[in-house]
Every structure is written in C-alpha cells, then in structure tokens.
Specification:
Blueprint (H helix, E strand, L loop, with lengths): L15 H5 L3 E6 L7 H8 L9 E7 L1 H11 L5 E4 L10 E5 L14 H20 L4 E4 L4 H4 L9 H9 L7 E5 L4 E4 L6 H7 L2 H17 L7 E5 L14 H15 L3 E6 L1 H6 L8 E4 L2 H12 L4 E5 L4 E5 L16 H25 L1 H8 L3 H6 L8 H10 L1
Parallel strand pairs: 1-2, 1-5, 2-4, 3-4, 5-12, 7-10, 8-9, 8-10
Antiparallel strand pairs: 6-7, 6-11, 11-12
Helix pairs in contact: 8-9, 12-13
C-alpha cells in the first residue's frame, strides 16, 4: 500500500515523481452544517482504507463537527490543526475556520449555516490556490443560504472559477461516473434564459473544452463526443425550434473541421433512453436538467461533479444538502467517496499527461502494448489509480 509516513508538501506544480511518492492532501469543505456534509465526511473516513489513498483536511468548525459526530454516534475523532501543513496521515484533520457559536438546526435553511459554509469554502479556496492542498472536494451547500456580500454566485462552480482564475474564467461543468461523462453548455441558469444564451460560438467552445478535458483529465487520446439538441425531437425540422439547424449543427461541423470527433445533434430522450451514451467518451448537453436528470437516474450513487478547465482540481458529490434526511443517519457516502477518488485520479492524470508531453516515448510504448498486457495494469472499479498500482506491485 501507499506509504502513510510520506507527508510531502502539496504543490500544483510538483513533479509527477514527487506526487506519485506521497499521499495527496485532499481539502474538504463541510458544506451547509444543517445538511449531510459532516455525515458524508465521517462515514467516508470511518473506512480505514481511505487513509491509504489521501491525507484529508476538513475545513469546518470544531463545534459543528463535534455536534454531528455525537448525532451519528461515531467513534472517529478529529485531529485539530491550524493549517494544512500540520495535517497528518491516518488522521481526520480539521481546520477550525471560525470560533463563533453556531445554532445547528438540522434540515433547516438559515443564513447562519450559510455563513459557516462560506467561511470554510473561502479558506479552502485560498489554500487550494496557494498549494497548501492538492485538490478540493466540496460538500453540498444551500445556494440561497450562502448568499452574502462576498458570495453573489449561483453555485460552487462560479465562485471557485472567479476566485481561482478571475472574471474571465470559463469553467466547464462535467458530471462523471463509470457510465458516462456529461458536460453542460449552460449551468445554473433559469430555463427561460437558456435558448438565448446558446450561441454557435459557445457550443463550439464547450466542445473544445470537453475534448481537452477528456484528453488531459481522463487520458482519453482520441475522444468521441456526442452533442445533444435543445428542443423536443431536435426541433422536428424547425417545427419546434430552429436552434439545432441554425446554431448547434454548424458548431458541430466547425468542431469536426478542427479535428474533433464530434457527432449530433441528438434528441436527448432517445439518446439516453436507447443507451447511445455508451458509445461516446463525452456528451455535451445544452442545459442543467437535460444533463443531470438522466445522469442521476442512471448513475445511482457514484456520480461526481467535476469543474474542468481550471488549473486546480475540484470535485463534489452530484447531490445536494438532503435536508429531508439530515441528522437521521440515512445518507449514502458513495458519491462523496467517489468524488475523492475522482479528484485524486484527475490530479495524477494531469501530472502523467504533462510528463508524457515532456517525454512522449513511454506513452507511445504504453499505447502500443498488447491489450492483454494493458489489462494487467487496469485499476479495480472505483479505486484511484495510485492505489491500484500499489496492489499490482504487491501481487
């Protein structure tokens, strides 16, 4: 297994050799304290194997964390640290982001819980930016509760993009699991504004971003991308809308001319209902629910939200605060655990891809090996690649 004594300093620019020899520091925000964030964290790290793949650093509150620990009746203890640099392997490290008393009302929406979520997110984002942690996994927030003078964003994706890159950031929201990877042209936008927001330039840009992410973050050398239409039945030859003919199809054509294997547009209902998604490496949907409704229906508990096209790695579970079951010990941590796996994989994939471009010969050798030899090096489903490599070497 991975050496738990190698604490190593986090760095987004660390060499592949260094990052492969140490456990990554995974920053974790506690989310809305009236939701299931702490339940997800405590359940995930109640499994000792999780400490074999990362050093967790929770950004939250000692008081809130202790409250939830008692509610769940878990014996797992926090290791309180002042900074991520003090985080230790084999411990659930927790940074106390604020000392104020907080009135926790499980399942309720209130500004106090929103402020607590913001303070944790703010400090974690700064640590991600300065390299104190390697990746960030965010527990669910309540978007209405977190709004304040410093948070005027529609969600994590928009806030992190602004803080990490700036006003000109153009992130790509990707939902990923073992079945599919679905990206969005528009994200947290009211349905009545979607059609006006979709332009040929935007669709072409998102295709290009998805193509790059599939290559760089998921190490798919020649990805195939399916693009969905906007209207029912693809507009039915203009009867139900002309966006497919006038905007989306030309954008697909331009993408193909630029060397991207891009197909469509496909009507969303038939595309997912017939299982066509299995034939593509990536899917581009036009709006939020067009992607998330079928994705969540098909992904069960292992879906992950990934913010692509940023110089930092951030993931989250593909569900919300679950106020209806908060405090009842009913939440599944499967998606949250998978978000940690995915963040680690993407971080290491980026390191490997950067190294491959510096020294392409090993990559060419790997791609031309016999399929049977490749099969011996495949990771078990749901396990980060670094962990799978260690298992292989022990056999």
């Amino acid at each position: 297994m991975t050496n738990n004594n190698n604490n190593g300093e986090a760095s987004q620019n660390g060499t592949p050799e260094n990052s492969a020899k140490r456990l990554l520091k995974v920053g974790i925000t506690h989310g809305d304290v009236n939701g299931i964030g702490y339940e997800l964290i405590l359940k995930t790290f109640s499994e000792n194997a999780m400490f074999d793949i990362c050093i967790p650093v929770v950004y939250g509150s000692v008081k809130a964390g202790t409250y939830h620990r008692k509610v769940l009746g878990t014996e797992l203890n926090y290791h309180i640290v002042n900074t991520a640099a003090e985080a230790e392997p084999n411990r659930l490290n927790l940074i106390n982001c604020f000392d104020e008393e907080i009135n926790i009302e499980m399942g309720r929406i209130n500004a106090e819980a929103g402020h607590a979520a913001f303070l944790a997110l703010e400090q974690a984002t700064e640590d991600l930016k300065n390299g104190s942690i390697d990746v960030l996994v965010t527990a669910p927030i309540c978007k209405s509760a977190i709004q304040n003078a410093d948070f005027r964003f529609s969600g994590h994706t928009e806030y992190l993009s602004n803080r990490l890159v700036g006003d000109k950031a153009e992130p790509l929201m990707i939902l990923a699991n073992n079945l599919m990877r679905v990206a969005l042209v528009t994200t947290h936008l009211p349905v009545k504004e979607v059609a006006a927001a979709i332009t040929g330039e935007l669709v072409e840009q998102k295709v290009k971003q998805l193509y790059h992410s599939l290559q760089h973050d998921f190490l798919i050398s020649a990805p195939r991308i399916a693009v969905l239409g906007l209207n029912p039945h693809n507009g039915d030859n203009g009867t139900l809308g002309s966006e497919e003919q006038e905007i989306i199809a030309p954008a697909i054509k331009a993408s193909v001319e630029n060397g991207i294997q891009c197909f469509g547009p496909y009507p969303a209902d038939g595309f997912f209902g017939s299982g066509m998604y299995a034939h593509f490496d990536g899917i581009l949907a036009m709006y939020h629910d067009q992607a998330l409704a079928p994705f969540k229906a098909l992904s069960m508990d292992d879906g992950v939200n990934f913010t692509a096209e940023l110089p930092y790695v951030r993931t989250s579970p593909d569900h919300g605060t679950a106020f209806d079951i908060a405090g009842k010990n009913m939440a599944s941590c499967a998606s949250f655990r998978q978000a940690i796996y995915t963040a680690i994989d993407i971080y290491r994939n980026r390191q490997a891809d950067n190294e491959a471009h510096r020294n392409p010969l090993p990559k060419l050798y790997h791609e031309h090996r016999e399929d049977g030899d490749r099969q011996r090096h495949m990771k078990p489903a749901g396990m980060p690649k670094a962990e799978a490599k260690e298992i292989k070497e022990e056999q």
